[in-house]
Write a structure and sequence with these properties.
By secondary structure, the chain is α/β, with parallel strands linked by helices. The chain has helices at residues 19-22, 27-41, 53-63, 82-91, 129-151, and strands spanning 2-7, 44-49, 69-73, 95-99, 121-124. It contains 5 helices and 5 strands. The longest helix is centred in the last third of the chain and has 23 residues, at 129-151.
Length: 152
């Protein structure tokens, strides 16, 4: 089971960018943790980080046929990127949106989330662990759906 892990703008700066808000862990450390947990769950991670909206859209489109789900931290794109929203929705893959900080406890503009409506769930404010929770939830729901299909 392949899971796409997407990270949007400025997340490449984790570890040094506003550590009081985002913590001290780097994106590479977080991705490695997610990969280890995915292995334990029988899944595989294909990761992409970009500061460019079109790169993330292309990544979804190029990998959707062989993937079972999406975990996405869109960063600022989550507030206004209808292109990424349409790519996630158009993929028909179950998706979980993740935000390291609690976007609802921050600036008012961060409360507008255009991607959330096409995601199965949103995890916000739980730090790097939000990625693990998203993975576990996504894998469980994919397995549940496969079991239901087998019963029919």
């Amino acid at each position: 089971m392949q899971i796409l892990l997407l990270n949007g703008p400025n997340l490449n700066m984790l570890g040094t960018r506003e550590p009081a808000v985002y913590g001290h862990d780097t994106l590479d450390e977080i991705v490695k943790r997610v990969e280890r947990r995915a292995f334990e769950l029988g899944a595989e991670i294909t990761a992409c980080q970009s500061n460019h909206e079109g790169v993330l859209v292309d990544f979804i489109q190029q990998n959707q046929a062989r993937a079972a789900g999406i975990i996405i931290n869109p960063g600022a794109f989550g507030h206004y990127s209808y292109a990424i929203r349409d790519a996630v929705s158009g993929s028909t893959l179950p998706a979980v949106e993740v935000h390291i900080s609690n976007v609802h406890a921050r600036e008012a503009f961060r409360e507008t989330m255009v991607l959330s409506a096409v995601c199965r769930g949103v995890i916000t404010g739980l730090g790097w662990r939000g990625y693990i929770y998203a993975l576990e939830s996504l894998v469980a729901s994919i397995e549940d759906k496969a079991e239901e299909k087998d019963k029919k």
